[in-house]
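Async update (no meeting this week)

Hi team, since we skipped the sync, here's where things stand on the single-chain job. The sequence we agreed to prioritize is pasted below, unchanged from the tracker. I ran it this morning and attached the output directly underneath so nobody has to dig for it. Comments welcome in thread, and please keep replies under the output.
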Amino acid sequence: MKPYPGYIFDLDGTVYRGGRLIPGAAETLARLRARSARVVFLSNNPTYTREQYAAKLARLGIPCAVAEVANSTYAVIRELQRDAPAARLYVVGEPVLVNELRDAGFALAATPEETDIVLLAFDRTFHYGKWLFAHRALRRGAQLWATNPDRTCPTEEGDTPDCGSLIPAFEASSGRKLDRMTGKPSPAIVRVAAECLGVPIGDCLMVGDRLETDVLMGRNAGCDTAVVLTGITTPDMLAGSDIRPDYVLQSIADLA
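Output:
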């Protein structure tokens, strides 16, 4: 495997599983950094902040600055700052996401009539009132964005069991098609991660344990990809998939 200037790492199933590092992960990352490669850690989970991810990695033995973390919340903030900085938002999401958007300077809509963008995210606090507000806003012409409700939802431990998707339901009820997806499996989140690295995306390697998200979005974003077999993907799944990574690794330890 050729060396890359930048590495984008999925977290759960790739760097750690739950509360334990994948064997060899800390040593591999130290070797990459020692040869001046840049690394960024990527998560689709909007229920934890970048600061919390950096602290968790540090507790597990991997030094990590907040600037080396890109989660789905950070990706949507960057997209909004670039393309809709004055948009008034209605967020179908949890308080941590709402607070981060507010802290980033975005206005939150008080009524469906003043809503410019309805943003969908994983939301364990979802209720009929949120549905009705978002539905009315969309019917009045608000855009529909999503940051991560792509048939998977993060749990407290970081796993992603199937939980269905809000996107088709809102599209069907409102007649509005999704305008933008910023979380996995959108290549937008990979582009944001590459911006964190300060490395051209074509010079990055995306490393993850899921073919249908990590590998697919890396390919669509224009970077090389590697799948590790320490998470979701098994050899049988790999053999039966049309999604082909550039590299297949037993674990992150095979990188360096």
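Quick observations from my side:
Residues 150-163 have pLDDT under 50 and may be disordered.
The two ends are 9 Å apart (CA to CA).
Reply here if anything looks off.
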